[in-house]
Amino acid sequence: MAEELKGFQQAAEDDDKPHEECGVFGIYGPGLDVARLTYYGLYALQHRGQESAGIAVGDGKAVHLQKGMGLVSEVFNHDSLNSFRGQVAAGHVRYSTTGASHPVNAQPLVFRYAGGMLGLAHNGNLTNTAELRSQLYANGSVFQSSTDSEVIVNLIARYSQSNLVEAIMKCMIDIKGSYSLVMLTEKNLIGVRDPFGIRPLCLGRRGDAWVLASESCALDAVHAELVRDVEPGEIIVINENGLTAHQALPARRRAHCIFEYIYVARADSRMDGYNVNQVRRAMGHQLAREYPAEADLVISVPDSGTAAARGFAEESGIPFEEGLMKNRYIGRTFIQPSQGARDLGVRMKLNPIRDVLAGKRVVVVDDSIVRGTTSGKIVSMLRECGVKEVHFCLSSPPIIYSCYYGIDTSNEDELIAAQKPLEEVRKYIGADGLHYLTLEGLFNVFGSGRDRFCAACFSGEYPVDVSKAQLNGKYVLE
Asked: Do 306 and 381 share a domain, yes or no?
């Protein structure tokens, strides 16, 4: 297992992208195969985390759990899903942002407390974990994992003399940061969203059944219709009496994560009123207006750059072509054991189509640059194919600050845009031209001001305070 985890971590280090956070899913559906529907929902959310997966099912008397390391299809099979019978289920796919890559940190977390059994699946990241954990330790709490999610579990248990909704409300007063939670008891499904709405959570319906999910694409996977997004600061409780909504905390200024639209979310999702594919296409239009390149072709770095590339082509009039072929059988767990193999890693994932590219001036559209290593290798591959000019365009502004709300963007000293001016970045990756979408251009795409979004990774304006230790890159949870 140690070698397997080492390989996973190495692959993550070599993957020059902001890493996704987690995906949550829940369903209340008496008479339905809720475990299998949760499996399908998690499959649709697999892009949000490939490290571990888990499903918890409530059958009216107890909550049963299965979880493990790996992809959804590796953790569950036909027999294991058949063993789950119940009326309510919650599931989770994980990429670790707080807490090590280890089976004990896989979710949902299931525990017993004064009111019975409770399962919790968390997407997001708390910013006052260390402080709360120290307080809970001092009061006799015991922790089995290194996740910030277990802090939430302990706080709910601590307030369990109240009813569950009141306990969750009190917990929400204590915790700071980003969180979308899907919880279940033996009979209830519960959804919670932080008062800024940083991480996404939506509500859907399939007949008499109710569904909660990180993205609407998971609702589509189980034939549920999107009803609405869960409001910031809202608690939703679903049981035999129907759906009850509680505004637990007043909604602060909305601060939806803008990077969800740039990279994290699936293009076929709808989040907080915006269609992700249309937003990315509009980013491409804005890019073309800001950078009127003279070129023969527009190509994308698939898949998250494709919609923006098509938008760039539509606005500029330059033809869009598929110039880079993606190997869809290599995931984030691809192990690259030596430096030589790592140098070939980009070629294993992306291969240029020489006959399309040779002799052309090319605009390459990608979603972002983190450390610049992958972008440089892509430019090098294009040069080897005989491309005359490479203009690299990004559908995001420069990432110059770390994210503390659930997306692993690396420390600031590893972010190339934080360390080098534009011209040096261009030379580093070997492109003839380089352009990042401007921050104002990004906000223009949404037709609203910056007060609706969290764009801290671009601006350094954090909607929820983070500690000096976090800002200095010293925030480590043992």
From this structure: yes
- State pLDDT tens for residues 121-160: 999 999 999 999 999 988 878 788 778 999 999 999 999 8
DSSP codes, 101-128: SSGGG-S-EEEEETTEEEEEEEEEEESS
CA-CA-CA-CA torsion sign (171, 173, 176, 179): positive
> What range defines the domain where residue 47 resides?
20-255
pLDDT in tens, 72-117: 999 999 999 999 999 999 999 998 544 456 788 899 999 999 899 9
Helix (H) or strand (E) segment spanning residue 221: helix 216-221
- 405-420 pLDDT, tens digit each: 988 776 888 899 999 9
Could you tell me if 303 and 324 are in contact, meaning their C-beta atoms sit under 8 angstroms apart?
Answer: no
Q: Is 350 helix (H, G, I), strand (E, B) or coil?
A: strand
Distance from C-alpha of 365 to C-alpha of 309, rounded to nearest angstrom: 5
The answer to whether residue 57 is domain-embedded is yes
Are residue 227 and residue 300 in the same domain, yes or no? no
Active site amino acids: 22
Residues 227 and 287 in one domain: no
Q: What sections of 19-177 are H helices per DSSP?
A: 34-44, 72-75, 78-82, 129-138, 149-158, 164-174
Cα dihedral sign, 71-72-76-78:
negative
Q: Distance between terminal CA atoms of the chain?
A: 19
Nearest 5°: the CA angle 424, 428, 430 is 115
Residue that is last in its domain, among 205, 225, 255: 255
